[in-house]
Amino acid sequence: MSIFTEEQNGTRHLLMGNEAIVRGAIEAGLDVAAGYPGTPSSEIIETLAKYAEKNNHYVEWSVNEKVALEVAAAGSFSGLRSLAVMKQPGLNVASDFLLHLSASGTRGPMVLLCADDPGALSSINEGETRFYARLMEIPLIEPGNFQEAKDMMKWAFELSEEIRNIVLVRTVTRLSHASGNVTLGERKESVGKAFFKNDGFILDPMEGSVMSAPVAYKHGEQQVKLKRCAEIFEKSPFNVYEGPVNPELLIITSSICDLYSKEAVSLLNAEKRVGILKLGTTFPLPPKLIEQYLAKADKILIVEEVLPFLEESIKVLAAELAPTIGAKQFFGKANGDIPMVNELNPDIVVTALSSILGIEYKEVDEEYKKRASEICFFGSPARETTFCPGCPHRASFFSINKNISMDNRSGFTCGDIGCYSMGMLPGGFSTLKTLHAMGSGTGLASGFGKMTKFGMEQPVVSVCGDSTFFHSAMPPLVNAIHNNSNLTMIVLDNSGTAMTGFQPHPGLEVDATGSEAPKIDIPSVCKGMGVNVEVCDPFDLAKTQETLFKFLESDGVNVLVLKQICALSPEKKGKKMFNMSIDDSVCLGGECGCNKMCTRVLSCPGLIWDRETEKSTINDVICIGCGVCASVCPSGAIKKEEA
């Protein structure tokens, strides 16, 4: 029996934050869900897809976040309850459509779940979702614990139904991926029947055409909806105050920072001096509620991640209310008590509180601290960030780096987001020279490839993954072809969205639920665009390098697809291509003259430099037998046999 398919009202379970979010959506009577993989949000669509058939849901991994939002909106326009899921950089991709959707409004309840990543634990930035709520003029709610993750998700659908607009729910990594106890509620029946009414009066929001024009009318309606939200938020059960009636210091916080704040107050034994107002509704703010609690204290500390979104809004509101509540002293990010970057933790809040309240606080005994530092420093070896044993990207970057170096024209490679982002580090031979958003490597390369007009003679290479190809690399490829740019695009095809858990994409024969689906062949797509395409196995260094040399010497756009399944994929995990060994009689170790090519340069974790024998050895436990090291060894000491 599963909590994702059965009623189980009133039962209590230990759930990960993302699982609680899924249960909340199911309790709301969800019909349609679409998203794009991205940690820390990926488990939401994965879990919904797993139970889609039993729950009669439609669930898909879309090609990118904008399309996911559009698919979910189609569900809403058809009268269904829909959900779009993404991580914070994905909202940048979806923002074009979101701007129109927020103005046109919705029909069936629609929720946008965006997972932020303070500290960039699994991202290339710690961009903020919250400011989009203000920009798009849509309501923003933020769960602060695991029970709220479920309850607020369900409430978000009810709110959307009431105001007929999309509701943004923001979570963060520490909530999405941690676990806590959750009591389940009743499940609503799904709508089940879809129908798009479109023959009514053009401005009828429920039966006419759906559009964001005319702007003057639609924008006015949108702001009326926001005012209605503010009224609803005044009585929201997710805005909670704990502490004395008239605190010396008032903490205003939201999201997971509520837990950090509570722990900090407890550690300082300051419960009688400090009150905590946890806001679950962070845009628009409920002004009467904020006024009520601002009037109780002269000192206000705002605790939030990452940028001062709450702080700025509350200060504006406090300035407007000054005639009735008086002047307040604010602490937070603006004055440096709370850092402006990275995720928070109880220690950071304790430091701020102890300074404001004049409480001396010693974290741990100095001797313990010293010993812990020693163990940390000397107890574990420093490890360089690198690719997994047998990762095809290592072989790909080895060839790319070698070709560009031997070409001797100062060529360079533009990259983007994925496992292959490590191509910028020594483990990827420092091959990548630009690293921005998904698909940006080819977009930049398209521009660099036109700089010959200004005397640039450097060969330009771009890399992208197979999932990224469908997500956002096709448009810049079209741009490069149409504008006669000179570049070599390399698609690192490891047969899945490997970085986030091997979710399927259009290049595979299955969809999100594991059902059979038409496969879109990347080389055929590129050939259809009219470019020269070659496919190589990156483990075949000789052919890969020969093909790449040819492309670097030619003008126009060339595409090289380096196809080899990820070593950690379910299909390949635990299987070896080759049994690898080292012939001690051939390996000359430090006397070889190759300067440890296998362990120092290739640096596969499956190879170990034995300091006693001063020769290389194979780590059979983690070696997956890709055979690349045999191709690299100049003396032929590394042997491979069919497994």
Tags for this model:
six-stranded parallel sheet, single chain, 4 domains, 18% strand, Rossmann fold, 643 residues, alpha/beta
Break the fold down into its secondary structure elements and pairings:
Blueprint: E1 12-16, H1 17-27, E2 32-35, H2 42-50, H3 52-55, E3 58-61, H4 65-77, E4 82-87, H5 88-104, E5 110-116, H6 130-136, E6 140-141, H7 146-163, E7 167-172, H8 173-176, E8 179-183, H9 215-234, E9 240-242, E10 249-254, H10 257-267, E11 274-279, E12 281-283, H11 287-294, E13 299-303, H12 309-325, E14 329-331, H13 346-357, H14 366-379, H15 392-407, E15 412-415, E16 432-435, H16 440-448, E17 460-465, H17 466-482, E18 487-493, H18 522-528, E19 532-536, H19 541-553, E20 557-563, E21 578-582, H20 597-602, E22 607-610, E23 615-618, H21 628-632, E24 638-642
Parallel strand pairs: 2-3, 2-4, 4-5, 5-7, 6-7, 10-11, 10-13, 13-14, 15-16, 15-17, 17-18, 18-20, 19-20
Antiparallel strand pairs: 1-8, 6-12, 9-11, 21-24, 22-23
Helix pairs in contact: 1-2, 1-7, 4-5, 10-13, 11-12, 15-19, 16-17
